[in-house]
Each structure stands twice: as C-alpha cells, then as structure tokens.
Amino acid sequence: RRWQPRVWALFEDPYSSRAARYVAFASLFFILISITTFCLETHEGFIHISNKTVTQASPIPGAPPENITNVEVETEPFLTYVEGVCVVWFTFEFLMRITFCPDKVEFLKSSLNIIDCVAILPFYLEVGLSGLSSKAAKDVLGFLRVVRFVRILRIFKLTRHFVGLRVLGHTLRASTNEFLLLIIFLALGVLIFATMIYYAERIGADPDDILGSNHTYFKNIPIGFWWAVVTMTTLGYGDMYPKTWSGMLVGALCALAGVLTIAMPVPVIVNNFGMYYSLAMAKQKLPKKKNKHIPRPPQPGSPNYCKPDPP
C-alpha cells in the first residue's frame, strides 16, 4: 500500500523524482523508435516478396481463364524484432500503471490509456496467428496488418511528458465552440463559392458543350467543393482553376472570404492557449515556492505568538 503512490508517480508524473524522469526518457525513446519503425515498414527497401502464386480463373462465367497473380509480402524481420522490444516495454509500462493506479475505473476511461491498449493488442494477435495456415487466420492477419496504423497513435503518449502538448489539448477542448463556428462558416462559404464558380464558368461557354468539358474544370457543383475548400484555406494546389474572367473574379472573392473566415476565431484560440500555458507554468513553479509564499503561523513560545482572548 505504501509503495502504491510512489510507483504510480514513477510511471505517471515525470517531475516527481529523478527515477521518474529516467522512466519518462525511456518511454520517450521507445515511442520514437516505434514510430520510426512504423514508417520504415512502408519503405520498399524493407519489404520483400515472401510468396508468389499464379492461378487461372475466369472473371466472367463462360469466358476464357486468365492468369491471376497473388503476391504475399512481408517486412524485414529486423524491424519486427525492434517493434517487439518496443511492445514489451509498452506492455510492462501499461501493466505497472494499471496495477498501481489509485482509481482503475478512471484509468480505463482515459483516452490515452485506451490508445495504449489498442496499440499493443494487434502485435500480440498477429504473433499468435502467424503460425496458423487456415484461411480465416490469414484473413484476420490481413486485417491486423491494415489496422497497424493505430500504432501511430502512440505519438499522443508524448502528452504525458511535455507540458506544451497538454496545454495544446486543453486549448483545443476549450475552443470547441470556435472550431464549430469556423467549420460552419467554411461549409457555408464552400457551398456558396462552389455554386458561384460553376455558373461563372458557364458564362461565354459554347452552347454545344453542355457539360463544359472543353473549357472548364468545373463540370458540376460537387467538384467545385474541392476547389472551394482548397482556395478558402489558401492552400491552392493548382489542379483546378478558373479560365474565364468571371470565374477568376469568383476565385478572388473566395480567397479573400477564406482569409477573413479563418482569421476570426484565431485570436480567441491564441488567448485560450496563453491562459492555459500561464496556468501550467504557474503550477510547475508552485511546489518550489509554496514554502516561501505561505509562512508558518507563530508557534507557542515564540516572541510573536499572541494568546487568544478567552470567550
């Protein structure tokens, strides 16, 4: 019992002790290694063909059979071993935290702890099913390889070790109304300017070209949604652009409206970030200065001690 708070602080609070900082550094190291391994597994230099089969089948009943090539690929075993070491550390860390957690219900409700569990389980399932040769096992393995992307969610574990990331999370939650307002304004702008660019590009078009496929990229309004989003966010891929003077005028108005729309909620979000950052910095400095700012009251026997009057 008396060790529970110490072990919990060791894995939960990097600022509680020097040993906790070492544990935090180790966790940070394995997080970065795991993410690096995840990225390298998609590089063609670390992928090789493990099995290649050619079968004949008819795509349409009655048609002549065609050769269908089935290729199975696997990543470099070295990367799998590295990922295994990282998963062992994450498993140990997760078990220690859930064992010594003072409130296990709140622990299981935490989104970061759910991410930890979801990122760990696919590796063990994949290892357990890798030796099976049944079709169902292969289908499950294929699904697990697809859901490997959940490993990238481990980047959110960094919020335990960096105050700035926690401040950013609090800022995003506190600015929910501003983000919703921004999304509503952008949605209205996208709908309006996508409709305007569609009809603006029809001005002066060839009457015989009903779809406008010969002189414009905007063949319908849904295609204009993509252009409006890219233009209002000032991204500007350049894959679609107006070709008529009326379309260029609409494009200029769309860009200006996007700048004004995005700029409106930014001051509120920045103000929330500054407020939470100041609170976080004050909270970090408070334990070091609490003895200076909260003087002890005079004790009996001291020259400043005054005996209270009897009632």
Automatic annotation (TrEMBL):
<dbReference type="InterPro" id="IPR028325">
    <property type="entry name" value="VG_K_chnl"/>
</dbReference>
<dbReference type="InterPro" id="IPR003968">
    <property type="entry name" value="K_chnl_volt-dep_Kv"/>
</dbReference>
<keyword id="KW-0597">Phosphoprotein</keyword>
<keyword id="KW-0406">Ion transport</keyword>
<keyword id="KW-0325">Glycoprotein</keyword>
<keyword id="KW-0472">Membrane</keyword>
<feature type="domain" description="Ion transport">
    <location>
        <begin position="21"/>
        <end position="278"/>
    </location>
</feature>
<dbReference type="Pfam" id="PF00520">
    <property type="entry name" value="Ion_trans"/>
</dbReference>
<keyword id="KW-0812">Transmembrane</keyword>
<feature type="transmembrane region" description="Helical">
    <location>
        <begin position="220"/>
        <end position="237"/>
    </location>
</feature>
<keyword id="KW-0633">Potassium transport</keyword>
<dbReference type="GO" id="GO:0005249">
    <property type="term" value="F:voltage-gated potassium channel activity"/>
</dbReference>
<protein>
    <submittedName>
        <fullName>Potassium voltage-gated channel subfamily C member 3</fullName>
    </submittedName>
</protein>
<keyword id="KW-0851">Voltage-gated channel</keyword>
<keyword id="KW-1133">Transmembrane helix</keyword>
<dbReference type="InterPro" id="IPR005404">
    <property type="entry name" value="K_chnl_volt-dep_Kv3.3"/>
</dbReference>
<keyword id="KW-0407">Ion channel</keyword>
<feature type="transmembrane region" description="Helical">
    <location>
        <begin position="249"/>
        <end position="270"/>
    </location>
</feature>
<feature type="transmembrane region" description="Helical">
    <location>
        <begin position="179"/>
        <end position="200"/>
    </location>
</feature>
<keyword id="KW-0630">Potassium</keyword>
<feature type="compositionally biased region" description="Basic residues">
    <location>
        <begin position="286"/>
        <end position="295"/>
    </location>
</feature>
<feature type="region of interest" description="Disordered">
    <location>
        <begin position="286"/>
        <end position="311"/>
    </location>
</feature>
<dbReference type="InterPro" id="IPR005821">
    <property type="entry name" value="Ion_trans_dom"/>
</dbReference>
<dbReference type="InterPro" id="IPR003974">
    <property type="entry name" value="K_chnl_volt-dep_Kv3"/>
</dbReference>
<keyword id="KW-0813">Transport</keyword>
<dbReference type="GO" id="GO:0008076">
    <property type="term" value="C:voltage-gated potassium channel complex"/>
</dbReference>
<dbReference type="InterPro" id="IPR027359">
    <property type="entry name" value="Volt_channel_dom_sf"/>
</dbReference>
<feature type="transmembrane region" description="Helical">
    <location>
        <begin position="20"/>
        <end position="40"/>
    </location>
</feature>
<keyword id="KW-0631">Potassium channel</keyword>
